[in-house]
Structures are given as structure tokens and as C-alpha cells.
Design brief:
Elements (H helix, E strand, L loop, with lengths): L2 H5 L7 H9 L8 E2 L10 E5 L15 H11 L6 H11 L7 H9 L1 E4 L14 H18 L3 E5 L4 H12 L4 E8 L9 E9 L2 E9 L8 H8 L6 H5 L4
Parallel strand pairs: 2-3, 2-4, 4-7
Antiparallel strand pairs: 1-3, 5-6, 6-7
Helix pairs in contact: 3-5, 4-8, 6-7
Length: 240
């Protein structure tokens, strides 16, 4: 897709700040921000893990993340399991389709934690890699100031790495509370309430969601997201 075609589907509101982060080599790819994101009373940022060398042709293309979200989530040229998995859990449907799917992506922002392509989905990052990339991702998250961040990962190590990063670095954020929930399958859902000293952003929730490309227990995860204290207000409008 051409640059202007990709950006037609994105909000430009935060681009000046994102461009600064790219120039400072904090991030490599411009995060996607849907045109309805800023109008939402419950701003949601979906935090994926990475793009992969097996999928990407030009890793230096700054619009690559946006292009993927536009092609798969909005205009739906093709759709892979990650996107379908998110839609299943938000809409609470085994076969998500139609305008509701597109509206989900138009309502959220999206960022990958890792700003370099991983070799493959089977690659397991070590704690050092996780911590290094959390520091970078946090700077981008600060720009859009979400109310909820949904971490799409099956590994609890990402939560442990984030706790260490916030404890060891002066990033303007700190963990206020950690809430753990009952197992869903073999995965442990968790929510971190993170306090912020950044103007106009008091705190936000970070919720760990089993990686949505894995289809098992999607119904249980949909129920979990629908809880009032998780994403109940956000998902309700897609379940009518």
C-alpha cells in the first residue's frame, strides 16, 4: 500500500510525537492509532510482540505496523490468526465478521513491544531483551495515554520484566497493584494497575491476555474481557 493510503485510515493526532521517537531511534515503526481512538471514553492500546522476519520484506519501512493493521483489520485484504483471535475475544463470537471487526480496529491503538523483527514466532526473548524493549515501548505508550493496555502474550515473564523496568528506571510510572485471576486453561490472567505522574494521565490498567493467535479457550477469554473491571465497557458496544 502507498503511504497516503495507509495514513488515510489512521489518526494523525500523535504523529509529531511518534516521529520524534523514530528520529531518536526509540521506536522503528509508527504505532497505529485508529480514527476513533481519541473519541473513546475507554482508550485501549493493544500491545503485540513483534513482526517476524518470515513475514516482513522491508523492516526499515516506518509504516509497516500501520500497514499490517489496515490490511488485516480494516480493509481486510487478508486476515491472520492474531487479528481473528482479538476479534473473537472482543465480539464474543467464534466467527467474527462484518463492520464490527473493522470498528474494533478503528477504535484502538496498536504497538509492537519489539521494534526489530524477531526471527520467527517460535523465538523466545530473554529477560534482557524484554526489559530493553519495555523501556522503548513505554515511551510510545506515554504518547497515546491509554486507559487500558492489553498485552498479547502467553508468557508471564513479560509482566516480570515490566515490573523490574518500572522499579529500576525513572519513567514516570510505577506499579500500584497487581491482581491475579483464576487460571484459564494453563494461562494465568493478570492485571497491573499502573500509577502515572505524567500530566493528564493518572493511571492505567495493563491486562495480560493469552496470545490471541492460539484458539483454545477463546470463549473463556471473551468472558474475562467482558468483566466490568477488565474491558466490560469497551467490549459491550461490539456485543450488541
Amino acid at each position: 500500500m502507498k503511504t497516503e493510503q495507509v495514513n488515510d485510515y489512521c489518526s494523525p493526532e500523535f504523529d509529531e510525537n511518534f516521529e520524534q521517537l523514530i528520529n531518536q531511534k526509540v521506536i522503528k515503526w509508527l504505532p497505529f492509532v485508529g480514527k476513533g481512538y481519541s473519541d473513546s471514553a475507554n482508550k485501549v492500546l493493544l500491545l503485540g510482540l513483534s513482526h517476524y522476519e518470515t513475514d516482513i520484506n522491508d523492516s526499515d519501512y516506518p509504516l509497516y505496523t500501520r500497514q499490517v493493521v489496515v490490511e488485516q483489520g480494516i480493509i481486510r485484504e487478508y486476515t491472520k490468526s492474531f487479528f481473528v483471535g482479538i476479534e473473537k475475544r472482543v465480539i464474543d463470537s467464534g466467527k467474527p465478521e462484518g463492520d464490527k471487526c473493522r470498528e474494533i480496529w478503528e477504535s484502538v491503538s496498536f504497538l509492537n513491544l519489539f521494534q526489530e523483527p524477531m526471527p520467527s514466532p517460535k523465538h523466545k526473548a530473554n529477560m534482557g531483551e524484554m526489559k530493553k524493549n519495555w523501556i522503548k515501548a513505554i515511551e510510545a505508550i506515554k504518547v497515546v495515554k491509554p486507559k487500558n493496555v492489553i498485552l498479547c502474550s502467553s508468557s508471564h515473564n513479560y509482566i516480570n520484566a515490566l515490573k523490574e523496568v518500572l522499579s529500576d528506571n525513572d519513567l514516570g510510572l510505577s506499579v500500584k497493584e497487581i491482581i491475579r485471576y483464576n487460571l484459564i486453561g494453563k494461562s494465568l490472567p493478570a492485571k497491573l494497575i499502573i500509577k502515572s505522574n505524567i500530566p493528564s494521565w493518572d493511571e492505567f490498567n495493563l491486562v495480560k491476555l493469552k496470545h490471541p493467535s492460539r484458539s483454545s479457550e477463546w470463549k473463556e477469554w471473551a468472558h474475562f474481557l467482558g468483566e466490568e473491571h477488565i474491558l466490560g465497557e469497551f467490549v459491550a458496544k461490539f456485543r450488541k
